[in-house]
Amino acid sequence: MTRNWTEEEQQALDYHAQPVPGKIATAVTKPCETQRELSLAYTPGVAVPVRAIAEEPLDAYRYTNKGNLVAVVTDGTAVLGLGNTGALASKPVMEGKGVLFKTFAGIDVFDIEIDADSPDAIVDTVAAIAPTFGGINLEDIAAPHCFEVERKLKERIDIPVFHDDQHGTAIIIAAGLLNALDIQGKSIHATQITCLGAGAAGIASMELLVALGARRENIMLVDRRGIVHTGRDDLNAYKREFAVETGRRTLADAMAGADVFIGVSGPDLVDAGMLASMAPRPVVFALSNPVPEVRPELARETRNDLIMATGRSDYPNQVNNVLGFPFIFRGALDVGARAINTEMAIAAVHALKALAHEPVPDSVLEAYEQETMKFGPDYIIPKPFDPRLIENVPPAVARAAIDTGVARYGWPAHYPQQ
Ligand SMILES: NC(=O)C1=CN([C@@H]2O[C@H](COP(=O)(O)OP(=O)(O)OC[C@H]3O[C@@H](n4cnc5c(N)ncnc54)[C@H](OP(=O)(O)O)[C@@H]3O)[C@@H](O)[C@H]2O)C=CC1
Ligand SMILES: CC(=O)C(=O)O
Ligand SMILES: [Mg+2]
């Protein structure tokens, strides 16, 4: 098949193809150049840690890479905003998550793309390979299957299972939104929120906002069929939790008077009229990747009192789960956490929120070719290249893990003194 890629698309293909196909490889961490080293790395030396681990399974964290290795697992059913591309085509995204885990938090990743025809097929596969890993990052598995997969895996294995599109996204949305509302002079408790997308990201984000003080009755969830309301008989149990009693039906109805729009759905679904109908000083997070629900250019043309974020790196205010999963897993792995719970998620929210108020380091300004960046409408959340993320977020997550009793170890010796 001959395709006509644009210059920018061709650059993306070349980046992935050259100098070797793909974005990630394995690295050897021990010397293996002499007969002596070979006998330590392989037989006979390798038998000693095998016997140790067979006697004491926790020794796997000491003698293997288990404690620093995460599986990024998908079935390819909700790949970015591209939909169900299948397992194979999702691999560049999963390798990309591996790049971010390693670059930002030093965590190694195997990406696991599974051809699965049911939630149980994913659960059985992941449970069977779990001994290899210190954590499982579920990625781009569509709702509602993602909820069942995560719940069943949490019941079956004793390492953290974290669906990034649910909880990673929710954490970053919450941190960015709390800051944006402060700037707009609004309170989460009284805010009318319209969320377009009632899948993995939408449901989990609204649940976390409720845990942080948003009122369930102030949230209007919208899916392909319009507003999620109590008169509908096609709702799954997760959507039903947010069903409101209302005569309103369409996305346009849901946008009128809203203080906040969260888009976790698909490209170009919001028009100028909908934006214009929102309340004064609104917050608009159009987070579908790669194409947002509304382009920032259109939003700015329409009104100048909004705070706007996208999931992308090339506009101000990138609200994207890249700010979460590397640092959250770092904190969880460093204390041998058995789970990543809501308290750990909320600790990450507050750490990210607070960091946005601090002066921005020069290295970040250079990476973004900006002279200044300061807390305000165009800087509500730290940038992924901020070197303080790794200093601030993992300790906050680790502290919450220890306090809630899910940590296997105490405060890491290399963490800042408390
Ligand atoms: N910036 C970020 O960090 C992140 C962004 N996202 C983005 O969020 C989006 C959804 O991801 P995810 O939740 O994992 O996917 P899911 O498949 O789990 O959910 C998608 C949801 O979007 C709704 N939707 C899709 N297209 C439309 C449409 N044309 N009109 C109305 N509703 C629509 C679906 O409606 P229905 O239920 O009726 O099918 C569904 O509720 C993607 O675009 C993804 O890129 C996701 C995670 C992180
Ligand atoms: C960022 C991400 O995980 C997504 O768009 O699916
Ligand atoms: Mg994703």
Automatic annotation (TrEMBL):
Domain Malic enzyme NAD-binding: 166-402
Enzyme Commission (EC) number: 1.1.1.40
Keywords: Metal-binding, Oxidoreductase
Co-factor(s): Mg(2+); Mn(2+)
Protein name: NADP-dependent malic enzyme
Domain Malic enzyme N-terminal: 21-154
One Pfam family cited in the UniProt record for this chain: Malic_M
EC category name: oxidoreductase
Reaction(s) the record says it catalyses: oxaloacetate + H(+) = pyruvate + CO2; (S)-malate + NADP(+) = pyruvate + CO2 + NADPH
Catalytic residues as annotated in Swiss-Prot or TrEMBL: Y42 (proton donor), K97 (proton acceptor)
